[in-house]
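Write out a record, focusing on structure:
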Amino acid sequence: MATFLYKLGRLSYRRRHFVALIWVALLTLAGVGAASAPAAGNSSFSIPGTEAQKAFDLLEQRFPGVSADGATARVVFKAPSGEKMTDAGNEATVRETVEELADGSEVARVTDPYQAKAVSKDGTIAYAQVSYKVSGMELEDSSRDALQDSARDARESGLTVEIGGDALQTVPHTGSSEIIGIAVAAVVLVITFGSLVAAGLPLLTALIGVGIGVSTITALASALDLGSTTSTLAMMIGLAVGIDYALFIVSRYRAELAEGRDREEAAGRATGTAGSAVVFAGLTVVIALVGLSVVNIPMLTKMGVAAAGTVAIAVLIALTMIPALLGYAGRKVKPMGEKGKRFGRAPKKPERPNLGTRWASFVVRRPIAVLLLGVIGLGAAAVPASSLELGLPDDGSQPTSTTQRRAYDLLSEGFGPGFNGPLMVVVDAKDSDDPKAAFSAVGDEIKGLKDVVTVTPPAPNKAGDTATITVIPGSQPSSVTTENLVHGIRDAGTDIKADTDANVLVTGSTAMNIDVSEKLNDALVPYLVLVVGLAFLLLIVVFRSILVPLKAALGFLLSVMAALGAVVAVFQWGWLSGLMGVEQTGPVMSMMPIFMVGVVFGLAMDYEVFLVTRMREAYVHGEKPSQAIVTGFRHGARVVTAAAVIMMAVFAGFIGSSESMVKMIGFGLAIAVFFDAFIVRMAIVPAVLALLGRKAWWLPKWLDRALPNVDVEGEGLRPDSRRGDTDRELVRA
């Protein structure tokens, strides 16, 4: 591995014009494809194997022309104080608004509040239901404008009018904080390298890689049904790893220059050694992201595969374009130790130990104390995770400043908290001898269940073999009580099927959210076993050790649990919510735990590979285990710290997103990187290695013979180096 990458690095350095031309051509091609492709819509949300999805599919078959996943809007009216919605003037305004809404070309139907009995008992609140032929992300701007114009016209009469539903759903924006994150990364790079040119290389390559990845996703969005969140995630992960991977190779290049090697040789050696770590670190991230497909949620699978593709591009760019750009930069990239001259400071004396050396020496002397402090600290941070509540965001999780949230609150006020999460019961009586009797039996059975406020009469299709029944719970959509009601209806359906041969299915957004949460919870353990198992095997090959990969996996579990605890504290409990821009607390997004397990594991292994490979390299070259730990920190701690700060800054930049899911992911990944890089990898890992000593690098002989030798440490380069040094000495003589 190291020898191949060494040759690749030297080739890229020599053929830099060709390498740069290839990547610029790929970026241009991807950009043209993105510009000419149809606009990205919202990925269709389907959950194969769940009852809610089966009901949706059945509705499309039995109710042709009715789009089960079409956009909806609830235009909610509230009368002024002292008036009723049934007053003549207010009723005339509402009917006029309904007529305006029905004129839209994408509108399937609009319900009249007075005919549909959609007026609250006290007469102060009413709503009109607007159903569209297409999904919310596919709606034309003219349809949204018409919806908002109708509401604005109704407000002029004195009514309070708000709009709920997904018809106003738009592509989320990330805000200016994303740019701030990149700016912080630039500052950290300048401080680390002491050179604007050296600092610019990782940023340039990361932006090119992300540009290619995101543009490719945009170009394929329509054909592959990729949602807007897919490109956002790819940008988030791609920027973070792209900067970090390039940072490690540039840093190793400067270290090789400091040892007296010429620039082409240094570029080859940096690619052969640090590049090997980049390859295996990238592989762990790709495994974690592609592994999300085991959950069998198409949207999550697409997000993972797209982000994995961007990571693969980041690895390839780091291995080829960084050496090429180093060739262009020439002497503007200084050897390590010379950066201080650029800022008017004398370089530090070589014999003075740096901060990484001093910290590692302290940990080696006090491993038990450091280990206990780190584990207890992460354990305390993980405590809130014990009260984790999962759910999917709805209008109730929107900020109070939005019309969707105000409409949600008005409906709760007028019709009860469960009105915002109606359940749709689909009765398939195709095999029943008496479908009408089956429909009535289902309705009567549901009325007898707890927490049921309203049960509408069955609405059969034209064939009369299938009917829908709307059930209004008494509790809010995200409550445990509503979840119990869904299971209660499904349990009752089992008995009904035995009596009438009719199938009873529960669907709707609330039931879908419940099914998604359960599916994700069921998939968490298998996913964890798959991803951690594959990465464990990969790390055995890299480190040629059993205990080092095991320690890496256990450390990851600590950091991910602590990160989940922080997410619960902020987004569920409301701690520091104002600072994070969280206007509404509530359940944590259902896919957050499994998503964090995948992404954080991959990123955690990045730092494990980068830091521990330097220790392994020193140990293989003859140093004692304790000294190898110090050597690894002397060479890698500063760079790993810079990489972690950069990754945290990039992830934290997405906290400014208008999309609650992106905001939560950005915060969760940023805090997870902090816990894993600075507590697990910088404290717990060296403490454990110090306690294990030589046992840390133990590997059974039979396994050592069976494993392939990938030579991450660059051992295969040493003879070439000695010959090269000898040749240069002879030439100088």
Q: What stands out?
A: The chain has 24 helices and eleven strands.
